[in-house]
Structure formats: structure tokens, C-alpha cells
Design a protein that fits this description.
With 371 residues, the chain is mainly alpha-helical. It contains 13 helices and 10 strands. The strands form 4 sheets. Strands 1-7-6 form a 3-stranded mixed β-sheet. A 3-stranded antiparallel β-sheet has the order 9-8-10, with no helix packed on it. Strands 2-3 form a two-stranded antiparallel sheet. Helix 9 crosses helix 10 (295-314) and helix 9 crosses helix 12. The radius of gyration is 23 Å and the shape is globular. It starts with a strand and ends with a strand.
Length: 371
């Protein structure tokens, strides 16, 4: 998922002990963006910085050692909200109209009893499907974010706990997850390792889940529902390798043919492929910047233009919100603490290989809708 920076306050250790607040005019006072704070502190030969979701307290010792106070309540609440969101879309069998029973309960008292009965019937009939889907998709997301988080711990780059993003108003129940990171304190090699650790860790779980999910498909059954999942290239290979009955390249898996492992693996591929796009502070943006430096800005801008052109040509605007957010955040990656640090041939080769992930994991048109 994206790793983002933010704003906040920086406190010396002495102020932590005395309870003193920094004055606005001091190097420690005020709310500054991370690049400004880092430049000020580096010029004074001190190290800590800040993030809007964190308070960083330096401890005596070598530069790079921090005592980080992280918010816990919000990440925990969002985690359980995402669990509930993904569980319910699994119970509703990924029907894009799954919210309709709740809407009828809220908007029309005359149909409340029937709608509540429908909800109870769905829970009783599909609770196991919802549970399997929830566990698998949350495991994929958790592994992805923990890959980033553990890398920040290794390099002692202050970072928040993962923030999971529930989104019950879509067929997959989530928008993924993000962590906040003080990226201006990491050099080129560290940013590379932090950026690539998430996708690799997530794929370690997503690939076997997707493989077994694909192997359980049977496309000879009569499809219905008007809503289907398109397969990315990697899942197309899995379908051919496992000889899925009735499958041919380009086929859509319809609602009636889905299973929880397949959908969880498909979601893992979608989110990983999307985050590996070489744009801004997405994981792919971190990697392309560490590989190509400022030339990565041209790659990011070209990718945005291509994405918009593709959506217009195919009249498919499912990702328009994502494109707008990326434009607002800026497609260009900020400089690292030291862009001159060598990453070595192994990391360079791994980074180039990782750029194939969007082509393997991201389905170009995502869904097919016929109603």
C-alpha cells in the first residue's frame, strides 16, 4: 500500500521529561512538512522528525534511534471495521447490490421485517464463505503492510501502524491499507527495501490463495448475476495450469461461479498490481525513483496519461477516483535523505523484475457488468 508522510511536531527528549512545550519560533516548534523539518534538523546536526499521526521523541544515542509514540485506537478500530466489511461482502456473495436489504430496513418501515429476515438468512447460509473470505483477504493485506512496517523497524524509520480502509459500498469490501512513514529520514537503499517489502510479503500469501481459488473454479456451470470478475495475466496462467473446466483466455468469472479463495486471491492481485504502479508514493513509485532517480517523474506522468487515455478509450472509469487522488497528491516522488547511496546489482535487478507486477497482477478492465 502507499507509504505516506505528513505533518506534526518534533520534541527534544528534555522537553518530554519536563513537560515543556516548544516555542513556535524554535527549531522544534510549529507544524512543518517533513522535508522542511528534516532540512532544519540536519543543518543543526540533530535527527528526529514528525508525522501527523505520530509524535517522535529522540533518545540519547546514535542518529537514527527513536522512541516512537504511535496511535493505536484508530488503527485497531479500522482493522475490525475492515474485518466486518469484508465478512459482509463475503456473506452477500460479492453482490454489488448487497446493501439493498439494509437500505430497505432504514428507508421503509413496512418492509423491515422481510428485509431483516433476508439478512438473517444470508448470514445463516453464507457465514462460512464470509469468514473464509475475510480471513484470507485480511491476511494478504496484513502481510503486505507488515512487510513495510518491519522494514521501517529494521532501518529505524519512524512509521505508524497500518491503517486498514473498510469500504462496504463495493464488491470487495476494502480499499486496502496504508502506513504513515517519515520517508525524508530514509536514504535511497532504505526506501527501496521498505517499498518492495510490502508487495513481496503480500504476494507470498496471495499467490497460493489465488492458485487454490482458481483451481476450484468451474465455468461450465450456468452463470448468472450480471457481474463478473476479469482475470489478470497471472490468474489466467493459473486457470490454464489447473485446467479449469470451461475456461478460455479472456473469460469472465461470474458471481454464481465465485469462491472465497478465488476472490481473496483476486483482490490481493488487484491491490498489489495497483500499488506497484510507478507513480508518486505508491510502492511502485518508491521503486522506480530509487532505480531511475528524477527520470521516474517522467515515468509517473506517462503512466497517468496512459491510464486516463485507456479509461476514455474503453469508456471504463472505475479507477477515476484513484487517478484523481494521485493527481492531488502529486505523481512525482520526493527526494530521499541521500539519493546517492548505491543499491547494488541485486536490488537493481529485483526492482526491474518487480515492475512486471502490474502487468501480471492487475486486470485491465477489472469487472464486467451487464445490468
Amino acid at each position: 500500500m502507499p507509504i505516506v508522510g505528513g505533518q506534526g511536531l518534533v520534541y527534544p527528549e528534555s522537553m518530554k521529561e519536563t513537560g515543556e512545550n516548544p516555542s513556535e519560533g524554535s527549531a522544534w516548534g510549529g507544524s512543518k512538512d517533513e522535508q522542511t523539518v528534516t532540512e532544519i534538523l540536519q543543518s543543526r546536526d540533530v535527527a528526529p522528525a514528525s508525522n501527523g499521526d505520530l509524535t517522535y521523541l529522540p533518545i540519547p544515542g546514535p542518529v537514527g534511534k527513536y522512541s516512537v509514540k504511535r496511535k493505536t485506537v484508530l488503527p485497531i478500530c479500522l482493522f475490525f471495521a475492515t474485518c466486518l466489511s469484508t465478512f459482509w461482502v463475503g456473506v452477500s456473495l460479492w453482490n454489488p447490490n448487497f446493501f439493498e436489504p439494509f437500505y430497505r430496513v432504514i428507508s421503509n418501515s413496512g418492509t423491515q421485517e422481510g428485509s431483516l429476515l433476508e439478512i438473517r438468512q444470508m448470514l445463516l447460509a453464507n457465514w462460512d464463505t464470509g469468514l473464509i473470505y475475510m480471513l484470507c483477504v485480511m491476511l494478504i493485506l496484513l502481510m503486505h503492510e507488515m512487510g513495510h512496517f518491519i522494514a521501517t523497524l529494521i532501518y529505524r524509520v519512524p512509521a505508524s501502524y497500518p491503517f486498514f480502509l473498510p469500504f462496504p459500498a463495493n464488491p470487495i469490501g476494502t480499499l486496502g491499507a496504508v502506513i504513515g512513514m517519515q520517508g525524508a529520514l530514509a536514504d535511497r537503499k532504505q526506501i527501496f527495501d521498505i517499498g518492495i517489502a510490502g508487495p513481496l510479503a503480500g504476494l507470498v500469501v496471495a499467490v497460493p490463495i489465488a492458485y487454490f481459488g482458481v483451481s476450484q473454479l468451474d465455468l461450465t456451470t450456468q452463470p448468472y448475476g450480471g457481474f463478473g470478475f476479469r482475470l489478470p495475466l497471472l490468474l489466467d496462467w493459473f486457470a490454464k495450469a489447473t485446467e479449469v473446466p470451461g475456461y478460455e483466455t479472456g473469460d469472465v468469472v461470474w458471481m454464481s461461479q465465485l469462491n472465497p479463495l478465488f476472490v481473496a486471491g483476486w483482490v490481493g492481485m488487484l491491490i498489489t498490481g495497483l500499488n506497484m504502479m510507478p507513480i508518486g508514493q505508491l510502492d511502485g513509485g518508491h521503486i522506480t525513483y530509487t532505480l531511475f532517480g528524477k527520470k521516474a517523474h517522467l515515468i509517473a506522468q506517462a503512466t497517468i496519461v496512459f491510464a486516463i487515455s485507456y479509461m476514455v478509450y474503453h469508456n471504463n472509469f472505475m479507477l477515476i477516483l484513484m487517478v484523481v487522488l494521485l493527481l492531488l497528491m502529486g505523481p512525482n516522488h520526493p527526494p530521499t535523505r541521500d539519493d546517492k547511496v548505491a543499491i547494488g546489482p541485486f536490488r537493481y535487478g529485483l526492482g526491474l523484475a518487480s515492475l512486471t507486477i502490474p502487468f501480471l497482477c492487475f486486470p485491465p478492465q477489472i469487472f464486467k457488468i451487464t445490468f
